[in-house]
């Protein structure tokens, strides 16, 4: 009788441990996200990478302020007269 009780206890513990293992494995796999692109090219020629767990891109320089400069590009040689092109919020 004692022998059967010990066997059942080990079987129940094994089932609990196996269930817990598969629960945590599946829980962690659902959190992994594959992002299709690693970087976004901004209008000024610079690049920004991914932030956060939802594959969102960081803001381009000036994007938060509402000013996006497309010309001149970063490290581009300028000459006179200087021509600046881009977009800005407002009128």
Q: In terms of quaternary structure, what is this?
A: single chain
Query: Helix amount, in percent?
Result: 25-40%
**Terminus-to-terminus distance:** 88 Å
Q: Specify the number of helices.
A: 1
User: pLDDT average, as an integer?
Assistant: 80
The strand order across the widest sheet is 1-2-3
How many strands, which pairing sense, and closed or not: the largest β-sheet? Answer: 3 strands, antiparallel
| Class from helix and strand fractions | alpha+beta
What does this molecule look like?
This protein is an alpha+beta fold and 91 residues long. Helix content is 33%, strand content 21%. It has 1 helix and 5 strands; from the N terminus they run αβββββ. Strand 1 and strand 2 form a beta hairpin. The longest helix is centred in the N-terminal third of the chain and has 30 residues. The chain is rod-shaped.
List keywords for this structure.
91 residues, 3-stranded antiparallel β-sheet, 1 helix, 5 strands, 21% strand
Topology (SSEs and partners):
Layout: H1 2-31, E1 39-41, E2 47-51, E3 56-57, E4 67-71, E5 85-88
In short:
The chain is an alpha+beta fold. The protein is built from one helix and five strands.
């Amino acid at each position: 009788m004692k022998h059967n009780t010990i066997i059942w206890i080990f079987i129940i513990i094994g089932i609990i441990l196996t269930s817990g293992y598969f629960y945590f494995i599946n829980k962690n796999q659902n959190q992994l996200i594959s992002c299709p692109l690693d970087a976004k090219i901004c209008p000024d020629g610079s690049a920004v990478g991914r932030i956060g767990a939802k594959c969102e891109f960081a803001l381009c320089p000036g994007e938060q302020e509402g000013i996006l400069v497309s010309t001149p590009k970063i490290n581009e040689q300028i000459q006179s007269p200087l021509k600046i092109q881009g977009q800005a919020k407002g009128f």
